[in-house]
Amino acid sequence: MSNYFKPSPENKVSTGQKLMSIPLRHLQQAIGSLGDLWRTPFTTFMTLLVLGISLTLPATLHLFVKNANNVVSQWDSASEITLFLKLNIDDKAGQNLASRLELYPEIAAVTYISAEQALKDFKLHSGFGDALTYLSENPLPATILVTPTKRSGQAVAAKDLLLKLEKEREVDQGKLDLEWLSRLEAMAKLIEDIVIAVALLLCLSVILIIGNTIRLAILNQKDAIAVMKLVGATDSFIQRPFMYAGAWYGIFGGIFANIAIFTLAHYLSSAMTELTALYHSSFTLETLSFTETVGLMGSAILLGLIGSYLSVRQHIRAIEPTAD
Amino acid sequence: MIRFNQVNKTYPGGFLALKNVSFQIAPGEMAFLTGHSGAGKSTLLKLISLMEKPSSGTIHINNQNLDNVGYRQVPYMRRHIGMIFQNHNLLMDRTVFDNVALPLIIEGYSQKEIRRRVEAALEKIQLSDKQKCFPYMLSGGEQQRVGIARAIVNKPPILLADEPTGNLDPKLSLDIIKLFEEFNAAGVSVLIATHDLGLIARMRYRTLTLKSGNMITDGIVDGLHSQTEVVSE
Ligand SMILES: Nc1ncnc2c1ncn2[C@@H]1O[C@H](COP(=O)(O)OP(=O)(O)O)[C@@H](O)[C@H]1O
Ligand SMILES: [Mg+2]
Fold first, then answer.
1. N or C: which end of chain B has fewer CB within 10 A?
2. Inter-chain contact B80–A17, Cβ cutoff 8 Å?
3. B226 and B137 share a domain?
4. Neighbours of A136 (CB within 10 A)
5. Given phi > 0 = left and psi -120 to 50 = alpha, else beta, which region is B162?
6. For residues A84 and A57, what is the distance between their CA atoms, to the nearest angstrom?
7. Quick one: pLDDT band at residue A129, thresholds 50, 70, 90?
8. Which of B72, B89, B187 is nearest residue A227 as measured by Cβ atoms?
């Protein structure tokens, strides 16, 4: 029996034996730190709530930008050219031009609006109806609405098409409203930049939240950490459960954010369907793709690990064992 | 095993806690470190266990100069030193078994080996039946013994004890010292710091005496008649 206490300082455990037990020990510690989180349910829940929201916001903004880009690209290809015909062009010549234009390979659809029709529409919609009856002559020209094909609808191609159409003898003036389109594009770009900046800030706050939570956990365990150092625990051994806690926060924060986004998207999408039905639009709300979902989870875990690593680095080293 | 060479320790604030201390403890030797409260006993043990660094002079443990031990090597050095304190430093939310197992878990022993060694250590301190208890369920003497089991469970070649019998009655104190004698008989170097001169007087061991940071005697204390040799300062 007393033989058992014979000192044997070197090589107490073989390296192979150690390597064999590493995955098992990590698993145990991972589950153990999950148990630690469960032991303080209120703190853990509040932290997860804050984390989840901090992750949901940038992801929601991302969804917004993604759908906005979708809408912009839809409008982009549907841009329309309005051709105002000369006033001396009669109905027949105008209709002739319309049928000629229909043969253009760049053009998808043509609508001819005669001068009378234009006046009628104007009377109907403008509210100047009665005043207009005093005009002796119709001041409005006949117009042709040209819808380019998808390919010729892009900003540059549409401009080329406009120049070509303006060379037609009957055409007085053509109008392609690209300005609002480029403005919309610029706006979308600006929003995207803002979203990136906000997302970065929120990521930073996720790191700080997790870092602070882990700091409190470390301070809570101060005495135990001092004892572990006393009996020869390395910093990396002591920090492991805290790193796992950070990873768990990331995992659960990520799951929370994913659920929140899918719920939000589902809710908005049913509201959207009603709205778009009114506008005869084929717009459907896109949610996060599989890759994006995985990406969100991955970055949540990464942020959790970064936060806990920064905290652990700083605070575990500072704890020293004391003899008294 | 332990070698101090002209060691000085000045605490931040300028207090000189150890003055030019030199001594050696051979492998397998057992010695007491004594002196009044505030003489520097704990400081000396803290230097050995790398909780403090000497201001000047050199310390060798296991033939390793502590000057050359970096932050990362400190834990590995401590695994060769069993430490016992008056306030036993147990983890209050872990069972006796888990407390004793801690050094083995840290070193990565297998579950089976941990169980075997912890049970043997608990048997040694006669607390086998309390392994599932928490420290607060134990008496002061029992807690102290759990601390001892934790210190020796990974078979360190050096055992340090700071006032291990601090608030125990004489009978329990003697039991604890007897335990140390058993480890010593198995080849462990033991250094016990205590201001309990009555306890030392009952035995015949080498005794190092500190007085306000100076090592004033180093020799065998035999009963009340001490044959001491004065250490030159
Ligand atoms: N961390 C410290 N900072 C400053 N002074 C200290 C510190 N630790 C101990 N001392 C001082 O060093 C002296 C020796 O203390 P210590 O080694 O604990 O004595 P002992 O254990 O013999 O009672 C005491 O006067 C104490 O006040
Ligand atoms: Mg002391």
1. C
2. no
3. no
4. 5
5. beta
6. 48
7. low
8. B89
Cβ contact, residue pair A233, B109, below 8 Å: no
Instruction: Specify the pLDDT at position A269.
Output: 81
Res B233: pLDDT: 39
Going by pLDDT thresholds of 50, 70 and 90, the confidence category of residue A229 is very high
CA of B161 to the centre of ligand 2 (A): 10
Q: Are residues B66 and B27 in the same domain?
A: yes
pLDDT over 80 at A13, yes or no: no
- For residues B42 and A21, what is the distance between their CA atoms, to the nearest angstrom? 38
Ligand 2 geometric centre to CA of B166 (Å) = 10
Prediction ipTM score = 0.87
CATH of residue B30's domain is 3.40.50.300
Asked if residue B17 and residue B69 are part of one domain, the reply reads yes
Q: What's the number of domains chain B is made of? A: 2
| Same domain, yes or no: B74 and B180 | yes
What is the tens place of the pLDDT at every residue in B146-191?
999 999 999 999 999 999 887 788 888 888 888 999 999 999 999 9
How far is C-alpha A103 from the chain's CA centre? 42
Strand B225-230 relative to strand B214-222: parallel, antiparallel, unpaired?
antiparallel
- The answer to whether B25 touches B12, Cβ cutoff 8 Å, is no
Q: Which residues line ligand 1 (CB under 6 A)?
A: B 11, 13, 15, 17, 35, 37-43
Helices then strands, each counted (H, E), chain A: 10, 4
Find the B211 Cα to ligand 2 centroid distance in Å.
Answer: 13
Q: Best residue in B50, B72, B107, B119 to probe A by mutation, most A CBs within 10 Å?
A: B107
Residues B128 and B170 in one domain: no
pLDDT tops 50 at residue A7: no
Which residues of chain B have a pLDDT value below 70?
A: 88, 220-233
Kindly identify which residue of chain B lies nearest to residue A20, measuring between CA atoms: B110
B68 with B162, same domain?
A: yes
Which of B128, B155, B182 is at the close of a domain?
B155
In a shared domain, residues B186 and B210: yes
Whether B204 and B229 share a structural domain: yes
Mind listing the pLDDT tens digit for each residue in A82-108? 889 888 888 888 888 899 888 888 888
Per the listing, tokens 């809570």 go with A220
Domain coverage including residue B212: 1-80+157-233
Nearest to B91 among A18, A227, A322 (CB): A227
